């Protein structure tokens, strides 16, 4: 699909195209209502603006579609396909990295009561582990805001992939 096709879709179909990017109704409404877009960049800027900031409830809803970092998404949904592509750059994890991610995920979930979410695309396993360690020192409020920013980055990357 490209931008022209997206702009021409009926509302219902356009909503289903963007939902796997970020399953937040307010965001889906804004991105589809903003059509037609003149450029991909204007669509992406609209997506960034519409999402920022996400509420705690929206973050909770959106997180239900994200697997743990380092784990394969289950199922054959569009969200699972996006996640698999995004984490593909991690490659095959060696045993020590895999164990560190598993332990880090568990510690994070114990501390914050949600999965650790980070934009994996373009990051190495070591970068992700460094970020995981850093974020463990965040306050609850700071970490919630950081998760929201990560969700927005992921949503914009996914939308760009659809429209490019």
From TrEMBL:
Residue ranges constituting the Oxo-4-hydroxy-4-carboxy-5-ureidoimidazoline decarboxylase domain according to the UniProt record: 8-160
Keyword Lyase in record: yes
Class of the enzyme per the UniProt entry, highest EC level: lyase
InterPro entries with a match to the protein in the record: OHCU_decarboxylase, OHCU_decarboxylase-2, OHCU_decarboxylase_sf
Pathway(s) per entry: Purine metabolism; urate degradation; (S)-allantoin from urate: step 3/3
Superkingdom of this protein's organism: Bacteria
UniProt keyword annotation of Nucleus present: no
Region (Disordered): 66-93
Pfam (any one): OHCU_decarbox
Reactions accelerated catalytically: 5-hydroxy-2-oxo-4-ureido-2,5-dihydro-1H-imidazole-5-carboxylate + H(+) = (S)-allantoin + CO2
Annotated keywords: Decarboxylase, Lyase, Purine metabolism
Known EC number: 4.1.1.97
Name this protein carries in UniProt: 2-oxo-4-hydroxy-4-carboxy-5-ureidoimidazoline decarboxylase
Gene of this entry: uraD
């Amino acid at each position: 699909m490209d931008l022209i096709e997206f702009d021409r879709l009926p509302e219902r179909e356009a909503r289903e195209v963007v939902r796997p990017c970020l399953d937040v109704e307010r965001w889906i409404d804004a991105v589809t209502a903003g059509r037609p877009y003149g450029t991909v960049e204007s669509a992406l800027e609209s997506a960034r603006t519409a999402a920022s900031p996400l509420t705690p409830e929206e973050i909770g809803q959106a997180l239900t579609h994200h697997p743990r970092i380092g784990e394969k998404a289950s199922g054959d949904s569009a969200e699972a396909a996006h996640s698999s592509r995004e984490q593909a750059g991690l490659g095959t994890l060696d045993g020590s990295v895999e164990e560190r991610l598993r332990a880090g995920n568990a510690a994070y979930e114990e501390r914050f009561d949600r999965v650790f979410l980070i934009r994996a695309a373009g990051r190495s396993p070591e970068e992700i582990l460094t970020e995981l360690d850093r974020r463990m020192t965040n306050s609850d409020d700071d970490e919630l805001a950081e998760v929201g920013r990560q969700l927005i980055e992921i949503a914009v990357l996914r939308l760009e992939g659809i429209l490019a």
